[in-house]
Amino acid sequence: MNIQDSLIVDQLKRDSTLGVRNLVNKYQDFLYRWGRWHYENIDDQDLLQIIQDTFMRILENIEAFQLKTQHGFRNWVITIFSRLCLDHIRKEIRAAKNMKLESLDSDPLEYNNGNCSISCGRKTEKLKKIKKKHL
């Protein structure tokens, strides 16, 4: 059964639980497949959370939405979902950079049981300067 987006929008604007059910039934699998295809590096649990966040964002902002074209609502849903996916990827990249930079704070002598050469120490100092520059 294919529910028209205009009907879903009307139901959501009237705070209908049927509207929420129709929204989830129509878009949950679609968004999951879209996310797997376009954002394959996001794991399943995170992707499902992003889909839930997308539905919450839609419900929070449905009053501001104006249906102007036949595919307008679908495009709006995809835009919200895609932006949340990109935000998630940016957060993961930031976290990975921070973890990498934090590992540079360690004493270079720890890595080689105290047998680190002077050049190793210089490289570590350069890396610490790079870290400070990027923070």
The CATH topology name of the largest domain reads Rna Polymerase Sigma Factor, Chain: A
Distance between the termini: 52 Å
- How many domains, in number, for the residues? 2
Instruction: Bin the helical content.
Output: over 70%
In total, how many beta strands? 0
Rough outline: elongated
Mean pLDDT: 81
Rg (CA only):
23 Å
Poorly predicted spans: 108-124
What structural category characterises the helix and strand content? mainly alpha
Q: What amount of the residues lies in strands?
A: under 5%
CATH architecture of the largest domain: Orthogonal Bundle
Give a short summary of the structure.
The chain is mainly α and 135 residues long. It has 2 domains: 5-103, RNA polymerase sigma factor, region 2, helix turn helix motif (Rna Polymerase Sigma Factor, Chain: A, Orthogonal Bundle); 105-135.
Keywords:
mainly alpha, 2 domains, Rna Polymerase Sigma Factor, Chain: A, 76% helix
SSE diagram, text form:
Elements (H helix, E strand, L loop, with lengths): L4 H9 L3 H22 L5 H18 L10 H32 L4 H4 L6 H17 L1
Helix pairs in contact: 1-2, 2-3, 3-4
Please characterize this protein's 3D structure.
The structure is a single chain. The protein is mainly alpha-helical and 135 residues long. The protein has two domains: 5-103, Rna Polymerase Sigma Factor, Chain: A, CATH 1.10.1740; 105-135. The chain is 76% helix and 0% strand. The protein contains six helices and no strands. The protein has helices spanning 5-13, 17-38, 44-61, 72-103, 108-111, 118-134. α1 (5-13) crosses α2. The longest helix is centred in the middle third of the chain and has 32 residues, at 72-103.
